[in-house]
């Protein structure tokens, strides 16, 4: 049985990844920090994971938690103290424990194809990626585009009262959308794949504003149309303005960060084609109709 150390196991994506790893037969050690609520720890046990308590600043404890593991999978979420600092400690512990592989908490658009300095959260991942690339360990990043689940409300592209789908630039610009569960399932498969390459790209669906409007029309029986909200450069300027007015420096996903993400979705430089969807033939992909049906 393959031993996997999962960091960030109590978070939204972490719990899904723990469940997917257990479903694939992995022995999952779920790293939890001291002080984690008992209910969260019991939930991990109920899933089938084995909670292991260790603080990120306790190097010996981190190293012990990873001994014998074949891969460290990170699903942590946060800003620099988490994405850069905590993951660096995880990486150092993995190297010290002789763990052969590491999957970082990317789960995003392929930021390596985009210019540095334009998206704060991508820049944090870029900083850690450089450290990971320099370490004596094999790494695999999962790039899934945006989480399709966010179309249900967190990502304000679909304006249901007006029956419009917003876009910037072109209504026919394709972008990748993958559900959180599908991303977790693919991550679990990659974690157990000793030959997984440095980068894997997936897309539960490749959508455009126009195709989303057509799906909403199909599901609701009402006419939905794409609505151009401006240019991609205009969205960039708006994100800068909102950042100045409401910086929310300690928020992981403030309004201006969401604008940066949507700008990069419509930018056209990040690959969106499902290049590696067929790598694990037993994978099934959630139809975007299922995501949109509830709110149609």
Automatic annotation (TrEMBL):
<dbReference type="InterPro" id="IPR008030">
    <property type="entry name" value="NmrA-like"/>
</dbReference>
<keyword id="KW-0560">Oxidoreductase</keyword>
<dbReference type="Pfam" id="PF05368">
    <property type="entry name" value="NmrA"/>
</dbReference>
<protein>
    <submittedName>
        <fullName>NmrA family protein</fullName>
    </submittedName>
</protein>
<dbReference type="InterPro" id="IPR051609">
    <property type="entry name" value="NmrA/Isoflavone_reductase-like"/>
</dbReference>
<feature type="domain" description="NmrA-like">
    <location>
        <begin position="4"/>
        <end position="223"/>
    </location>
</feature>
<dbReference type="InterPro" id="IPR036291">
    <property type="entry name" value="NAD(P)-bd_dom_sf"/>
</dbReference>
<keyword id="KW-0521">NADP</keyword>
<dbReference type="GO" id="GO:0016491">
    <property type="term" value="F:oxidoreductase activity"/>
</dbReference>
């Amino acid at each position: 049985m393959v031993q996997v150390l999962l960091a960030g196991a109590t978070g939204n994506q972490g719990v899904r990844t723990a469940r997917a790893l257990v479903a694939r037969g992995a022995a999952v050690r779920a790293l939890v920090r001291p002080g984690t609520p008992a209910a969260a720890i019991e939930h991990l046990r109920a899933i089938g994971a084995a909670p292991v308590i260790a603080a990120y600043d306790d190097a010996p404890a981190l190293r012990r938690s990873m001994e014998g593991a074949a891969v460290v999978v990170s699903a942590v979420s946060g800003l620099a103290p988490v994405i850069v600092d905590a993951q660096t400690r995880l990486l150092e512990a993995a190297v010290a424990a002789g763990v052969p592989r590491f999957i970082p908490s990317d789960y995003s658009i392929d930021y390596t194809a985009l210019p540095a300095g334009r998206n704060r959260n991508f820049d944090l991942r870029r900083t850690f990626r450089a450290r990971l690339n320099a370490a004596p360990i094999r790494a695999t990043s999962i790039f899934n585009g945006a989480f399709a689940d966010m179309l249900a409300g967190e990502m304000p592209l679909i304006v249901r009262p007006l029956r419009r789908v917003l876009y910037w630039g072109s209504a026919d610009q394709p972008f990748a959308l993958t559900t959180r569960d599908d991303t977790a399932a693919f991550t679990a498969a990659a974690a157990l794949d000793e030959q997984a390459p440095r980068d894997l790209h997936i897309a539960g669906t490749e959508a455009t504003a126009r195709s989303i409007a057509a799906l909403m029309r199909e599901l609701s029986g009402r006419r939905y149309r794409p609505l151009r909200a401006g240019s991609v450069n205009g969205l960039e300027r708006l994100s800068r303005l909102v950042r100045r007015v409401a910086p929310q420096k300690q928020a992981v996903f403030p309004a201006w960060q969401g604008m940066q993400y949507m700008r990069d979705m419509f930018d056209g430089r990040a690959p969106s084609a499902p290049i590696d969807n067929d790598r694990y033939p037993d994978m099934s992909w959630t139809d975007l109709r299922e995501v949109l049906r509830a709110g149609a």
